[in-house]
Design goal:
The chain is α/β, with parallel strands linked by helices. It is 26% helix and 18% strand. A seven-stranded mixed sheet has the order 6-5-17-16-15-7-8, covered by helices on one side. Strands 25-29-26-28-27-33 form a six-stranded mixed beta barrel. Strands 1-2-3-4 form a four-stranded antiparallel sheet. β11, α7 and β12 form a beta-alpha-beta unit. The structure holds iron/sulfur cluster (SF4). Iron/sulfur cluster binds at residues 69, 71-72, 74-76, 101, 105-106, 108-109, 237-238.
Length: 978
């Protein structure tokens, strides 16, 4: 085989030879050499031999219909192979017309067919029978369910109980449709899973750039630094992974920080396994090295950092010059020697020095990325992103080829048909006063807020979300979801059974990726694209000349798509239009009739996506027909450094300017901006909107931060009481060795398995066969000390409970650290009439007040169904649900749940069995109260009598006036705001 470099060289040579022979690359946006891609001209009748009929040469004729994958957030393109004889989908492969995924998928994309044909999927609306959670159901018509739900929502709105309506989303898979629906209802009812996922990283990026995600240009980088498992399971997994590998084939160096030897780490040129939470210490040692050796981009820093503001705020007695700032910076980070980083991280000083040299040599071609991982594991994890992006900001590797962009520049969110006004209400169940700077809703604290009587829910939607299983402290969720005084009506919108759906009043079957409409755009390279998820059988029928007006006509059973559901529900909430809701769901072409998805998306494609109407016309298609046929459209490639763009004179009307060059205007915001920043920077005192920043005399677009520059210094953090955290720094984690008892280990619980999909992996048989268990990774030294070998049972004790799992002894983890994937451990109660049978163990769950005990009754087993493969299930183990035993750990700034746990691990006793779980939810509430005490609430620390800085992003932002605190802020006993 040879080394990776040798293999890469052979691949490159083969490519060059292919080109020399006249072989062409796929002419569409994928621009890659994979001859097997069906040319789009033949998508109406693509012929393949039926592999299952071999040796007979039976031809199969297919309509190829694009959609996008719904099995992670990457939204890779899929092509459904719709058999022209049976009008059914036979398989899914990659869509070469999709510029992000370029025809490629991971294992989870093609496994979509398993989800579609899963014999256990929910095919009709169901209503509970008996007590909530008793596990008994009866079919109900869509009409009955809609009328009941709509009636309750209408009553809540009419009675002024808007905050009792909540929609809680797991996998969104779309850009803004549901926020728009909620805004049309006038409710601040959006809740998300983000604070158990990515808020830590988002906070770090947002504070720097005003935009909450990075867009690393891996393909053009010389050095790639990843703090996550991006090649196998990280953010934008397949689209990023293929570009990382392209860069490696060119000779780029890959550096991976991952305490666990992930598949990504195995591909690294330099892999380090730091003590969890020490990552910022290593990054700051690299920063100190750059400063010591002068290997940073002075001019970029001088022009684009808010250093002048920092000096004025923190060093007013020193000269306000960039040279002085450099001196201050040197002093600030001088303590971060390689030796100190070694002491904190356990990574050798020499290795860190080598990484520092690689980074220093990258110049503007340094692409970096962290997501989840360390930023989601640790108290102060948001500083991982802040210190990582500091490297880019020092090298000027921001929005450069091979550098890292703010994501909004590599993403395009089109303007929708209607934009309802911002809701005139603030929901403290999701945005409580204690977390004024949280990047997203404090979703995982909801059970505790409900238990404390902070509010109640009348109608609660969980949508492709399974908090009982996904969130920490799932049994506290179970306690509130079974209490009708706290949650009046629970509606689960889901394509598959879940631990949470079992606790619903209505289970409503929603479409999978090939059964629903969604529009999306994600940052995967320096370009902007939109892609269209669609019900493929509907598109196929329409291509054959049939008209389909309701997706239920083509989906399996009574499975619906959500957009049609939300439009119908909104009409039933406001049947006569007097609440002002219905008009946002009416046809514009035929007022008084319902808006159709065709009209909704047709309008967007026609009016809001630059270049699409012309491209469609060139093919003789309408923009909607173009998207239905090809599934994706690249708006532009090579967006470049938007911050450097000069602001045109016509956008500079009655300008104002602050002392640091932030420029404000009275010109209205352009309707179709080149970029769509996710932040809304504060207007100035005269109500003018920020439009740019003056740099060396020229007004440039800048960044959507308060200063318009990259914010090395966050005046927001300083003003809201966190002055000591206002610049990138290192805060010791809650699992730092100094914070733990000598007999405790750190448990890393956050890692994904590359071939699983959270809850929806449960009904994908190929994936289940590949990955169905989650042993505890444990280093041989620890295993020897504890006295266990591979396969032995160990008991893992957390602050609130314990679980029993198998050990996997491996040198792929640091001594003192254990790891267990969160992708496993699905379960259903023995009393459940229905449920998923390929990946759910059957358990007994008992409760004695707050003390819960789960024991396993049975693993999975073969069973007869319409799919012969279910009789071939050979595995019984489905892993252990560790998240039940974790208390909540909300970071006081970002709001991110800090997943890492300090645990004790011992050999399981003779009376303990695999899958045993014990939890004390009273203790869980105590831990919640302890972490709550770390916060600086808005009512005591707001500098301006608002609940939250207006410029910070918020999905579904309420109207500006409801940001005001409804009362005067309290003052700390010492009269200060800290
Ligand atoms: S990376 Fe895999 S799971 Fe994610 S969208 Fe692409 S094909 Fe689907």
């Amino acid at each position: 085989m040879g080394t990776v470099e040798e293999v890469a060289a052979r691949v490159s040579a083969a490519r060059a030879e292919a080109v020399a022979r006249g072989e062409t690359f796929y002419p569409g946006p994928s621009r890659v050499h994979l001859a097997a891609f069906p040319p789009k001209e033949r998508w109406d009748d693509w012929v393949e031999l039926d592999s299952q009929d071999w040796p007979r040469r039976t031809e199969r004729h297919y309509l190829l219909v694009p959609t996008t994958c719904f099995n992670c957030e990457s939204a890779c393109g899929l092509l459904a192979y719709v058999d022209r004889d049976t009008a059914q989908v036979r398989k899914f492969e990659g869509n070469p017309e999709h510029p992000g995924s370029r025809g490629r998928n991971c294992a989870k994309g093609p496994a979509t067919i398993n989800q579609v044909t899963d014999p256990d999927r929910i095919l009709q609306p169901l209503k509970r029978v008996g007590a909530r959670g008793a596990g008994r159901w009866e079919p109900v018509s869509w009409d009955e369910a809609l009328d009941d739900i709509a009636g309750r929502i209408r009553t809540a709105i009419v009675e002024g109980r808007r905050n009792e309506i909540m929609y809680h989303v797991g996998r969104p898979g779309e850009d803004g449709f549901t926020e728009r629906v909620l805004a049309s209802w006038g409710v601040d009812g959006h809740n998300s899973h983000t604070n158990v996922c990515s808020s830590g990283a988002r906070a770090g990026y947002h504070l720097w750039t005003g935009i909450d995600r990075p867009s690393p240009d891996h393909a053009s980088a010389d050095v790639i630094l990843l703090i996550s498992s991006h090649l196998e399971a990280g953010h934008y997994f397949n689209p990023h992974a293929q570009r990382v590998m392209e860069a490696k084939q060119r000779g780029a160096k890959l550096i991976v920080f991952d305490t666990r030897l992930s598949n990504t780490a195995t591909h690294a040129d330099v892999w380090v396994s730091p003590q969890p939470g020490s990552e910022p210490a290593i990054l700051l040692a690299i920063v100190a090295h750059l400063l010591r050796t002068g290997r940073y981009d002075r001019e970029f820093m001088r022009r684009w950092w808010n250093w002048a503001e920092y000096l004025a705020a923190e060093h007013p007695d020193r000269p306000a010059t960039f040279e002085e700032f450099e001196a201050v910076l040197g002093e600030l980070y001088a303590p971060y020697t390689f030796e100190l980083a070694e002491q904190e991280s356990g990574v050798g000083a020499g290795t860190i020095a080598r990484i520092a040299e690689l980074v220093a040599g990258a110049g503007t071609r340094l692409s970096t990325h962290t997501w989840r991982s360390a930023s989601a594991g640790n108290l102060g994890g948001w500083q991982v992103a802040r210190t990582l992006f500091l490297l880019n900001a020092m090298l000027g590797a921001v929005a450069t080829p091979g550098g890292t962009y703010p994501n909004a520049w590599n993403k395009f969110v089109p303007r929708p048909l209607y934009t309802p006004p911002h809701p005139q209400t603030w929901n403290e169940l999701t945005w409580p006063l204690e977390y004024p700077l949280a990047l997203n809703e404090m979703s995982f604290l909801l059970p505790h807020f409900l238990k404390e009587g902070r509010g109640k829910l009348d109608v609660y939607f969980t949508r492709v979300y399974n908090p009982v299983w996904t969130n920490p402290d799932g049994l506290s969720w179970m306690e509130v979801l079974t209490d009708e005084a706290m949650v009046g009506l629970h509606v689960a919108l889901t394509p598959t059974w879940s631990e949470t759906a079992f606790l619903a009043d209505y289970v409503l079957p929603m479409g999978l990726g090939p059964e629903r409409h969604d529009l999306h755009s994600y940052e995967q390279y320096d370009g902007q694209w939109v892609a269209f998820r669609q019900p493929v059988l509907r598109a196929a029928r329409e291509r054959l000349g049939q008209q389909v007006s309701d997706t239920r006509e083509v989906n399996p059973g009574q499975v619906w798509e959500e957009n049609e559901f939300w439009i119908e529900l909104s009409w039933r909430i406001d049947p006569d239009g007097c609440l002002g809701i219905r008009r946002y769901h009416e046809s514009q072409k035929e007022p008084g009739t319902k808006l159709s998805v065709d009209e909704y998306y047709g309008w967007i494609f026609e009016h809001s996506v630059p270049g699409l109407p012309a491209a469609a016309a060139a093919d003789g298609l309408t923009p909607l027909a173009y998207m239905r046929r090809y599934g994706a459209f690249e708006i532009r490639a090579g967006v470049g450094p938007v911050h450097e763009q000069e602001v045109p004179a016509d956008e500079l009307i009655e300008v104002g300017e602050d002392e640091y060059g932030r420029v404000y205007t009275r010109a209205p915001a352009p309707m179709s901006p080149n970029v769509v920043p996710t932040a809304t920077p504060e207007p100035d005192a005269q109500g003018r909107r920020p439009v740019g920043v003056r740099v060396d005399g020229v007004v440039r677009r800048g960044f959507p931060t308060p200063s318009g520059k990259l914010e090395f210094y966050s005046r927001t953090l300083a003003a809201w009481g966190w002055r000591e955290q206002a610049v990138p720094g290192y805060q010791r984690s809650h699992v730092h060795p100094a914070a733990m008892e000598p007999d405790q280990l750190v448990l890393i619980s956050t890692f994904r398995l590359p071939t699983q999909i959270h809850t929806r992996g449960g009904n994908a048989k190929w994936l289940d066969e590949l990955a169905h268990t989650n042993p505890l990774w444990i280093h041989p030294q620890d295993a020897t000390r504890i006295g266990v070998g591979a396969g032995d049972l160990v008991r893992v004790e957390t602050e609130i409970g314990a679980f029993v799992v198998k050990a996997w002894v491996t040198e792929g983890i640091r001594p003192g650290v254990v790891a267990c994937s969160h992708h496993m451990g699905r379960w259903k109660l023995g009393s459940a009439e229905r449920g998923q049978r390929q990946m759910m163990a059957t358990v007994d769950l008992t409760r004695d007040d707050g003390r819960w005990r789960m024991t396993r009754l049975a693993g999975v087993a073969p069973y007869e169904s319409g799919d012969p493969d279910t009789a071939r299930i050979w595995w019984s183990d489905v892993g252990v649900h560790q998240n039940l035993t974790f208390p909540v750990h909300p970071d006081p700034i970002s709001g991110q749940h800090c997943w890492h746990q300090a645990v004790r691990v011992r050999r399981a006793g003779p009376d303990e069995a695999y899958g045993d779980i014990t939890v004390d939810t009273a203790k869980a509430h105590e831990v919640y109260r302890r972490w709550l005490a770390l916060t600086l609430p808005a009512d005591r620390h707001s500098p301006d009598r608002t609940r939250r800085p207006y410029w910070l992003m918020r999905p579904l932002k309420p109207a500006k006036d409801v940001f005001a605190l409804p009362f005067a802020p309290a003052v700390d006993p010492d009269g200060t705001n800290r």
